[in-house]
Amino acid sequence: xxxxxxxxxxxxxxxxxxxxxxxxxxxxxxxxxxxxxxxxxxxxxxxxxxxxxxxxxxxxxxxxxxxxxxxxxxxxxxxxxxx
Length: 83
Prior knowledge:
By secondary structure, the protein is α+β, with helices and mostly antiparallel strands. The protein is built from three helices and three strands.
């Protein structure tokens, strides 16, 4: 059985009735949309999605910093005047 990763869940037919009310009721938390009692999708408010994307971007930038930090030994020293 597939795990539901949300505290609120609705069926596809319930979602069709009033999606705006469901999003408002969730208070920013994800809503699991179930099809035959299995998660088919997760619905989140736009503000929550935007916050998630910002966190993901920060994480990816952090990974890039770590990768480049590991490559520091291969760097060539250059003074500002040479640029």
